[in-house]
Task: structure prediction
Amino acid sequence: MNERPNLVRRTVFPRSDSRAVVTPLQPSVVYASPDPDALDAQYEGRAKGYTYGREGHPNADVLAAMIDLMEGGPFEEGQGGIVTGSGMSAVTATLLGLLSAGDHVVGGNQLYGRSLRMLTQDLPRWGIAATLANPTDLQAMEAAIRPETRLLLVEVVSNPTLRIADMAGIERLARERELILVVDNTFTTPYAFRAFDRGADVVIHSVTKLLAGHSDVTLGYVLARDPARRKAVYDTNVTLGLTPSPWDCWMAERGLYTFDLRFERAQANAAALADLIADHPAVEAAIYPGRTDHPDHDRARDLLGGQFGNMVSFRLKGGRDEANALARAAPQIAFAPTLGDVGTTLSHPASSSHRALTPEARADLGITEGFYRVSVGCEPFDLLARDFGAALDAAR
Ligand SMILES: *Cc1c(COP(=O)(O)O)cnc(C)c1O
Result:
């Protein structure tokens, strides 16, 4: 019998004096160290090295460092952002890492649906109370604060009505009351809103959306200004096992290389599409922060520096019948409850993200059966104009 080669000891490696131009994808979960002293040095921060994939890996670190640059980095070694397995795991690691039983949170009343659920249904089971308040109304935010409030969680642009939070006022409030200000920067992206420059203590992203941009990974990111808070979020992330996969990180890195091109294109499309929608007779109102008829237009101009984003919402005259007619007349536009994809997607909050609300609660927010939210993508504008023109005609 022939002698069999030893394969399991992994003795075969590629050899090259030239370096790969593209970041290598490194799926290894385990890392070998020379000896216990070397491990001590790593755990004590005297040497840099990986140990176990749940605690960190090269593809997550490369992605984190790239998003750090967008958020105003580079930051000191070990102080940059933390990549997590999804946007919700970023929210979870932040809240559970920074809060304890008995604490209270004030959250925006139009946060991402699952964040709302976390505040109103999950945190209370763990002894953490939450109150929701309208972040465009500083008095309402202030009135929600209690002696045991520790943290404010806000998004700059509300979903799906695209109202703009009073971020200057909220920053002041957080400083005066010594609260941790957490900003979910997903809708705005670091190109429209640099949260650290506006007083945020913690910045969160769902990298799944505009940053990765192709609807093929879920990932999140958390950046904390204070090292002790960063460590608390990191440890919670690792303990709860919210770690991202190397493949997803590698894919998101690839997406990020075109982020600024995609963002510029999608934003220009959004501005033009908002005008087209607003002028159509089937439409009751078009909502885009870049339009002068938007209720928070001045605040948007100041906070977002003219980067009004890729999201457009609108209300059809009429209700569900008109909404059905519109979706059916535009099969080329993915009717899907997400945002930030390279292609345009359409969502209908009354039947998806906001279906758990009573019709009255939806009406209070202005979300009718004829309400649509559009995540505008990077198609040539002619194509969008043609498709939306036909869809809106069908909804008359
Ligand atoms: C999508 C989203 C999240 C959650 O992100 P996932 O990656 O889907 O878990 C959180 N916040 C906002 C604003 C989002 O749009």
About this structure: The pocket of pyridoxal-5'-phosphate is lined by residues 86-88, 112, 115, 155, 184, 186-187, 206, 208-209, 218, 220 (CB under 6 Å). The chain has a mean pLDDT of 96. Residues 259-394 form a domain with the Aspartate Aminotransferase, domain 1 fold (CATH 3.90.1150.10).
